[in-house]
Specification:
Order of helices and strands: EHHEHEHEHEHEHHEHEHH
CATH topology: TIM Barrel
Structural class: alpha/beta
Strand content: 15-25%
EC number: 2.6.99.2
Subcellular location: Cytoplasm
Distance between the termini: 11 Å
Number of domains: 1
Protein name: Pyridoxine 5'-phosphate synthase
Binding site for 3-amino-2-oxopropyl phosphate: 25, 36, 213, 234-235
CATH superfamily: Aldolase class I
Low-confidence stretches: 1-5, 8-14
Strand order of the largest sheet: 1-2-3-4-5-6-7-8
Shape: globular
CATH class: Alpha Beta
CATH architecture: Alpha-Beta Barrel
Mean pLDDT: 92
Largest sheet: 8 strands, parallel, barrel
Number of strands: 8
Family: Belongs to the PNP synthase family.
Number of helices: 11
Helix content: 40-55%
Radius of gyration: 18 Å
Length: 266
Amino acid sequence: MTPAQGPNQGPNPALDRPACRLGVNIDHVATLRNARGGTDPDPVRAAQLAIAAGADGITAHLREDRRHIQDADMIRLKDEIDRPLNFEMAATEEMAEICLQVSPHAACLVPEKRNERTTEGGLDVVGGQQTLTPIIDRLKEAGIRVSLFIDPEDAQVRAAAALGVPVVELHTGAYHHAALSTTPSRIEAAWRAIDEAATLADDLGLEVHAGHGLTFHNVPNIASIPAMRELNIGHFLIGEAVFMGLDQAVREMRRLITDARTGRLV
């Protein structure tokens, strides 16, 4: 199976797909810094290194409990990087106010639980429209590009489109866990769900992003989905940086994504 073929797809002649951007999430550089306190390692420096290595943008999640990224980090990122900043945030009044002050290029609304280690799933857009609508409207009025982090489900995609956001980011956690299982039918089902949700979103006029649990091993089949326009990857890249350096980790991920879009074997 080549990267440009999804599970059991067979050859795909559509090799003239638009490029798929790479957004690098630098949250866990801040996690490492906070483990000891002080200023090192600096997440802003990590963002600059990632950009130099080929990242098209930087993502950072300002959590309500400030477990990694801090308010000052967001301000510095906006001021000191020369690529788009994607501000991941819970759909709360506090975060909306901070986001409006920072004025990033984009804001991705994500679900957030105090006791979770990482984001465990997508937003319930179907059931949360009353909460999401005023936040979305305020950010859009300020010229911030809003995306919703959702599970790859038909109902969630349609609800996101109904709210008028320009972008959805599909949660790829289920595909990550399926790939770890090495069970072909499970991998196939998880990949199909993402492919179908991406196709539906694209048909509805939404730009499609994806992220969560993407690695060197599993990213090619996600990047090869024709509707995919951006992948946001963090924890894996920061982990690989320990062994190969952040520069090389980002360059390798950039290569894998590009090769998947053009149908080249990896």
